[in-house]
Specification:
By secondary structure, this protein is an alpha+beta fold. The chain has twelve helices and five strands. 29% of the residues are buried. One of its GO terms (molecular function) is DNA binding.
């Protein structure tokens, strides 16, 4: 179950993502913040490049910076990578490497021994970044054996972040970063899909600000009993029974909005 603090961290991750104005910013700001949501030992983002008929990943952005040596070695041995198809997918793809290949095959591969063994990498999450059918690159998170495996819940979180990363990566590579949150994941769109009334849309907006029932009732100028009726009607339309189930559903649909942080007063 997702707790309030995890949703807040998720929002901070998106905040850093949408603050990025260059490709380099993804490594400097976004990746370090992502570590708070999904702990990792190493991480990298690489963009897709085409050279004639061949397709490969270049320009690694890494945390920590020293891990760039592993990814530079990877570029030399990329032809031997059994996951190279990831950079060619026309839809965003996420997998845990240990689910794809057995341990012995993985640890004996040329890629592992030449690139990742010096860093004692044991497993990874690989996310293919794609926007509008165009492969853009890959995000990789790595752990050592003592770190433990990536959980299914962490795959869910990365897939949710990836929905936003796809759009932002496309904008950054095109040199046109948006000024705010992604317009493709608005509450208005999800509200329309589920047939919410105007009052239910207002309630949904208040929920995504993590306000309690009393605060919401005051903001909407309704009684507690009336608020509960609105909750029940909205939950029924979404097919959920609690606000946290609803928030998880918004994440799954890529519709949890980025709430810009309140500027600190001088």
């Amino acid at each position: 179950m997702l707790e309030k603090n995890q949703f807040l961290i998720f929002n901070h991750v998106l905040s850093e993502l949408y603050r990025c104005r260059t490709y380099q910013d993804l490594g400097d700001a976004f990746l370090p913040m992502l570590r708070m949501l999904i702990p990792y030992r190493y991480a990298s983002i690489m963009r897709r490049a085409e050279a004639g008929p061949s397709i490969h990943l270049v320009d690694p952005l890494c945390v920590p910076a020293a891990f760039a040596e592993a990814e530079r070695r990877y570029m030399r041995f990329a032809a031997d990578d059994y996951t190279a198809w990831l950079s060619c997918c026309r839809e965003a793809t996420l997998f845990r490497e240990s689910d794809l290949v057995g341990e012995q095959q993985r640890l004996r591969s040329t890629i592992y021994q030449e690139c990742y063994q010096p860093f004692e990498v044991y497993d990874s999450l690989q996310y293919g970044i794609v926007c509008n059918g165009q492969p853009l690159g890959a995000l990789s998170l790595f752990r050592c054996r003592e770190d433990g495996p990536f959980s299914d819940h962490e795959l869910f979180l990365l897939r949710s972040v990836g929905t936003h990363l796809n759009q932002q990566m496309a904008a950054l590579l095109a040199g046109t970063p948006p000024a705010g949150g992604s317009p493709d994941h608005s509450l208005a769109a999800v509200a329309a899909r589920h047939g919410l009334t105007l009052r239910e849309r207002q309630l949904l907006e208040e929920l995504t600000r993590f306000r309690n029932n009393q605060e919401i009732a005051e903001a909407l100028s309704v009684r507690a009993s009336t608020l509960q009726k609105h909750f029940q009607n909205m939950f029924r339309k979404f097919g959920v029974t609690s606000r946290w189930e609803l928030m998880r559903l918004l994440l799954e649909e890529g519709a949890l909005p980025w709430v810009p942080p309140v500027p600190q007063s001088e």
